Amino acid sequence: MRLRNALFLGLIIVMALAMTVAVGCGGSDEEAKAELSAALDTAEASMAGFTSSIGADSSVDDITAALESFQPEWEAVVAAAGNVEGADAAAAEQAWTDVTTAIDSIPEGASILEAAALIMGPVTALQKQTADLRALVPKE
């Protein structure tokens, strides 16, 4: 009888701990989503500034500098995405890797049109990743 009571008490304790962890994770997920949303807000503003500042009279160096300055914002997005269920942080990280690979592949002396052609695909993929992540944490 004592063994049965001890097992029952043990089961109650395990269930209580499981409930506590499950409830705690819910709040943590909300915090993670808030962090991702804030990181996306910063990244989206930075990307909008980048796209509006690049024009026909921009140089290849202007484009590469603008994209490279965006890296810390995107790293914050990737880090925050890693804590949100359903967010594909690996895809977000790969999108940035593709952008940096495209930047590195711009040959010296390339025209602005040549550079734009090389980075357009990866930048578009990065924007898609931004949209996919934003869908998980829509602005209210």
Radius of gyration: 23 Å
Tally of discrete structural domains: 1
Form type: elongated
CATH architecture: Up-down Bundle
The CATH class name reads Mainly Alpha
Put simply, the count of helices is: 5
Q: In percent, how helical is the residue content?
A: over 70%
Terminal-residue CA separation: 57 Å
Structure in words:
It contains 5 helices and no strands. The protein is mostly helical. The protein has a single domain, classed as Four Helix Bundle (Hemerythrin (Met), subunit A) (Up-down Bundle).
What attributes characterize this protein structure?
mainly alpha; Four Helix Bundle (Hemerythrin (Met), subunit A); 5 helices; 81% helix; 0% strand
Brief summary:
The protein is mainly α.
Topology:
Blueprint: H1 2-53, H2 60-69, H3 71-81, H4 89-104, H5 112-136
Helix pairs in contact: 1-3, 1-5, 3-4, 4-5
